[in-house]
Amino acid sequence: MKKYNVGIIGYGWVATAHIEAINKSDHAQVTAIYSSRELDDQALSEQWGTPIKSYTNLQEMLANPDLQVVSICSYPNQHKDQAVQAAEAGKHLILEKPLALSWADCQEIENAVNKAGVKSCVCFECRFSNQFKVIKSLIDQGLLGDLHYGEIDYFHGIGPWYGQFRWNVKKDPGGSSLLSAGCHALDALLLCMNDEVVEVTSYSTKSNSQIFEPYEYNTSSVTILKFKNGAIGKCASSIDCLQPYYLHTHLLGSEGSLLDNKFHSMKLGTDKNNWSNLALKLLDSGDVSDHPYLDQFNVFFESITQNIDMPLTSLRQAMKTFEVVFAADQSAAEGRPVQI
Amino acid sequence: MKKYNVGIIGYGWVATAHIEAINKSDHAQVTAIYSSRELDDQALSEQWGTPIKSYTNLQEMLANPDLQVVSICSYPNQHKDQAVQAAEAGKHLILEKPLALSWADCQEIENAVNKAGVKSCVCFECRFSNQFKVIKSLIDQGLLGDLHYGEIDYFHGIGPWYGQFRWNVKKDPGGSSLLSAGCHALDALLLCMNDEVVEVTSYSTKSNSQIFEPYEYNTSSVTILKFKNGAIGKCASSIDCLQPYYLHTHLLGSEGSLLDNKFHSMKLGTDKNNWSNLALKLLDSGDVSDHPYLDQFNVFFESITQNIDMPLTSLRQAMKTFEVVFAADQSAAEGRPVQI
Amino acid sequence: MKKYNVGIIGYGWVATAHIEAINKSDHAQVTAIYSSRELDDQALSEQWGTPIKSYTNLQEMLANPDLQVVSICSYPNQHKDQAVQAAEAGKHLILEKPLALSWADCQEIENAVNKAGVKSCVCFECRFSNQFKVIKSLIDQGLLGDLHYGEIDYFHGIGPWYGQFRWNVKKDPGGSSLLSAGCHALDALLLCMNDEVVEVTSYSTKSNSQIFEPYEYNTSSVTILKFKNGAIGKCASSIDCLQPYYLHTHLLGSEGSLLDNKFHSMKLGTDKNNWSNLALKLLDSGDVSDHPYLDQFNVFFESITQNIDMPLTSLRQAMKTFEVVFAADQSAAEGRPVQI
Amino acid sequence: MKKYNVGIIGYGWVATAHIEAINKSDHAQVTAIYSSRELDDQALSEQWGTPIKSYTNLQEMLANPDLQVVSICSYPNQHKDQAVQAAEAGKHLILEKPLALSWADCQEIENAVNKAGVKSCVCFECRFSNQFKVIKSLIDQGLLGDLHYGEIDYFHGIGPWYGQFRWNVKKDPGGSSLLSAGCHALDALLLCMNDEVVEVTSYSTKSNSQIFEPYEYNTSSVTILKFKNGAIGKCASSIDCLQPYYLHTHLLGSEGSLLDNKFHSMKLGTDKNNWSNLALKLLDSGDVSDHPYLDQFNVFFESITQNIDMPLTSLRQAMKTFEVVFAADQSAAEGRPVQI
Amino acid sequence: MKKYNVGIIGYGWVATAHIEAINKSDHAQVTAIYSSRELDDQALSEQWGTPIKSYTNLQEMLANPDLQVVSICSYPNQHKDQAVQAAEAGKHLILEKPLALSWADCQEIENAVNKAGVKSCVCFECRFSNQFKVIKSLIDQGLLGDLHYGEIDYFHGIGPWYGQFRWNVKKDPGGSSLLSAGCHALDALLLCMNDEVVEVTSYSTKSNSQIFEPYEYNTSSVTILKFKNGAIGKCASSIDCLQPYYLHTHLLGSEGSLLDNKFHSMKLGTDKNNWSNLALKLLDSGDVSDHPYLDQFNVFFESITQNIDMPLTSLRQAMKTFEVVFAADQSAAEGRPVQI
Amino acid sequence: MKKYNVGIIGYGWVATAHIEAINKSDHAQVTAIYSSRELDDQALSEQWGTPIKSYTNLQEMLANPDLQVVSICSYPNQHKDQAVQAAEAGKHLILEKPLALSWADCQEIENAVNKAGVKSCVCFECRFSNQFKVIKSLIDQGLLGDLHYGEIDYFHGIGPWYGQFRWNVKKDPGGSSLLSAGCHALDALLLCMNDEVVEVTSYSTKSNSQIFEPYEYNTSSVTILKFKNGAIGKCASSIDCLQPYYLHTHLLGSEGSLLDNKFHSMKLGTDKNNWSNLALKLLDSGDVSDHPYLDQFNVFFESITQNIDMPLTSLRQAMKTFEVVFAADQSAAEGRPVQI
Question: What number is the ipTM of this complex?
Answer without folding.
Answer: 0.95
